[in-house]
Amino acid sequence: MSQDCRGDSLGFIATTVTTFADPILHRTSVQSVPGVRDQDFCIPLCAKEVFLAIMQIGSLLPLACAAVVLSAAMPCRAGSCKRLKTADGFVCVCNATYCDALPVPALRQHVATVVESSEAMGVMQASQVAFNASAPAEGTAVISIQSSVHYQELLGFGGAFTDAAAMNILTLSGAARERLMQAYYSRTEGIGYTVGRVPMASCDFSTHEYSYDDSPSDFALVNFSLAAEDVAMKIPLIQLAHKYAGKPIRLFGSPWSAPAWMKTNDNMSGRGWLKGVAGDKYHKTWAMYFVRFLQEYGKHNLTFWGLTVQNEPADGYIPFFPFQCMYYSAEMERDFVKMDLGPTLAANGFGDVKLMILDDQRVFLPSFAQTVLSDEDAAKYVSGIAVHWYVDVVASTSDLDETHKSFPDKFILATEACQGSQPTEHGVHLGSWSRAESYAHDIMTDLNHWVVGWTDWNLALNATGGPNWSKNFVDSPIIVNPGKDEFYKQPMYYALGHFSAFILPGSVRVHSELSEPFLTLDLESVSFLTPASLSGLPHSIITTVILNKHDSAQTVVIHDPAVGYAEHKVQAHSIITVQYPLPDAAES
Description:
Elements: H1 3-6, E1 12-14, E2 19-22, E3 27-30, E4 44-46, H2 47-57, H3 63-71, E5 83-86, E6 89-95, E7 111-118, E8 122-130, E9 141-153, E10 156-160, H4 163-170, H5 174-185, E11 195-200, H6 228-245, E12 250-255, H7 281-298, E13 306-308, H8 330-347, E14 354-361, H9 367-373, H10 376-379, E15 384-388, H11 398-406, E16 411-416, H12 433-447, E17 451-458, E18 478-481, E19 486-489, H13 491-500, E20 508-514, E21 523-530, H14 532-535, E22 541-548, E23 554-560, E24 564-570, E25 574-581
Parallel strand pairs: 9-23, 10-11, 10-17, 11-12, 12-13, 13-14, 14-15, 15-16, 16-17
Antiparallel strand pairs: 1-4, 2-3, 5-6, 6-19, 7-8, 7-25, 9-20, 18-19, 20-21, 21-22, 22-25, 23-24
Helix pairs in contact: 4-6, 5-6, 7-8, 8-9, 12-13
């Protein structure tokens, strides 16, 4: 596509213009246009190139696409998903020369833009629906939006820069590697991640156990140094993420274990905790270990937005726990924060780093937060509460609500989630749609109950769900195939993108309510307002994400008193993102 095409003042029109042999599906296929769902691919053209394209491809242009040529105003973007069918569904294939990008139709007044992914029809297909003044027929599912009723502000979405993720991404060629990082962190070519979690030294998704100072009794941390995994792998990828994000992302660090010599069991794994008690030399040294981590990353021009006190502290109480862990009770974490970690960070110039407690399952709320934050000397150092998703199916959302109500000045951030961690469904299920639905459901549930953001686990894994020295193999939204120098975007990736690509950090959740008869029909939604000052557009934007887990399609109407009613048929087992600009009178 020419540079002139990208800037064509006549506007952008998407159309099918070419055919090609697909080496994955072993047949010739024609690209589909956003909104035309019976094809596999899409290539955009600009208005002044359309007629030349039609002349070149003649009868190969489907009639459905011809209609879109004449009527659909879409931006010029890269093609859509290059599909690979799998035993569990489908993935989208990317390599050094090709990767799909999200359709981003131009927003127009009184028109809702709909981007839809479904199990049956594929991912990220765009269409537009006009608002009107007519109320829907009785019995229609209606999502009523009140844009003037505000809740929490969004922090963002992201994933973890584990050793395993870095190793896998670095097996790709330079061009494929950059495309993968663009797919996550670019707002124009990817899903616009703005958050990154960084393990402090090793975790199970490393090839071996290591700390930054394995020299016994080195209380001065003379031998502290980052590992090769940091310097050669994680740091270069984080720098790539910054490059494609266009600005520094919010990084937060999480430790899995102190060095073995600091722990009661003299081992980074298994049941154990820091030797001694809060305020002693072990705790002071461990607090300084955090400072040294921040300082050493700072030498590579990487600044951390936040820290968690300890990854899953409950694991460290389990006998023979199979990988790195360290136990804290709520009382132990409270005392460590107020006597050691908080003061040490502040004294060394890191008092503005957002310190998060818990970093474990939300079933420990609200009691864990109450124990720590009811102590003013501890609470003054704490900015937020970190939660994981692994037992959310048995955890009540009231735990989140009650925690927010008790401590409204402390944010709640989801800091880890992954599929494939349970014994009955371990590892990678390539192309699974049900895993995408689980992600979307959990994100919506969290956001509707005061959580400010959602952080996935490994950015990328291999086909077995590793490497993982403890053989704790799981799944990831992107799976790397180094033998073919390609990577596979799973439905989970697109589920995340339905949120991260459209809801900007700083957006605020607004009140939305699904009409009562449909609360039991597997429909869920969440809505956000992005102010014009953040969107870069003349108007504020409402974004609503809808999940339909039902086996049949559901007609859904968006009702916003500021613009009217917009109706869309939400396909079975689908996720859709609906966006529209607010008129001036409705801005708030």
